[in-house]
Design a protein that fits this description.
226 residues, alpha/beta, two-stranded parallel ribbon, 7 strands, binds NADP nicotinamide-adenine-dinucleotide phosphate
Length: 226
């Protein structure tokens, strides 16, 4: 699927300036893009976004739950406090956005997604949320022990499975996907991949065909254990 094929992209962002900047860049690339104000921790903006989508589009085909915070208190993850010195406030902040925000937005958008013939939900997760990888000393992310972020992404993986199970009898597919280690604000631009490279697997998960999986954790290499 190409976004220039008539797909309308709704850019949900809490900052109007940043959201409009992305929307303009997409529009310059020939994509029908609109900014929708959305703070995933603010129920009023979630309800307003759902109401606007219903009024202007009548349905939603794809929901990408991408918003997240690292909540480490450090711009470089290498400088983050170990679990024993992590404050509950950081853990709460990570869960507010990375887990509860996803639940709130998903529940608000589900009535619109149910109106689509083949809706897809992609929860943008992380290798760092994989319990399999975190318990494997040979895994590249094993030494990255960020309690707020890692545990919030593990919870997000469980949330993904919960929705996938509830929706298994219908056309909606719900998966978690990870972009890999990308250079972005989240990690002080320490990642080795570009955001565009990371986005490819998210786009793939968002456009799965009818024979695609649901309730799986998708990486570049395909679905892998949680
Ligand atoms: N970068 C990596 O290596 C990596 C690896 C694995 C997974 N991921 C995942 O990829 C996704 C994108 O992260 P990224 O690397 O692109 O990091 P990023 O540059 O920090 O982007 C995160 C985005 O989430 C937005 N956000 C945070 N809180 C929000 C809220 N309450 N409401 C609405 N938007 C909110 C931020 O908005 P503002 O601009 O307003 O702050 C920002 O645009 C995240 O789910 C992340 O966990 C990233």
């Amino acid at each position: 699927m190409s976004l220039a094929d008539g797909t309308t992209v709704l850019v949900g962002a809490r900052s109007e300036t940043l959201g409009e900047r992305v929307t303009t860049a997409l529009a310059d690339g020939g994509i029908d893009a609109r900014f929708v104000r959305l703070d995933v921790t603010d129920p009023a903006t979630i309800d307003a976004a759902a109401a606007r989508i219903e009024e202007e589009h009548g349905r939603l085909d794809i929901l990408v739950n991408n918003a997240a915070v690292a909540a480490t208190g450090a711009s470089d993850p290498a400088d983050a406090a170990p679990p024993s010195r992590t404050t509950v406030a950081f853990v709460r902040a990570a869960f507010e956005t990375n887990v509860l925000g996803v639940v709130a937005v998903t529940n608000a958008m589900l009535p619109l997604l149910r109106r689509s013939p083949a809706a897809r939900i992609v929860n943008v997760s992380s290798e760092l949320g994989s319990l399999g990888r975190q318990s494997d000393p040979s895994s590249p992310g094993h030494g990255v022990n960020l309690l707020p972020y890692n545990t919030s992404k593990s919870a997000l993986n469980a949330v993904t499975l919960a929705y996938a199970k509830e929706l298994a009898d219908g056309p909606i597919k719900v998966n978690a996907a990870t972009p890999g280690h990308c250079a972005t604000d989240l990690n002080g631009h320490t990642g080795s991949r570009t955001a565009a490279e990371g986005a490819a697997v998210i786009a793939e998960a968002a456009t799965l065909g009818a024979d695609g999986p649901t309730g799986v954790f998708i990486t570049d290499a395909g679905p892998e254990p949680w």
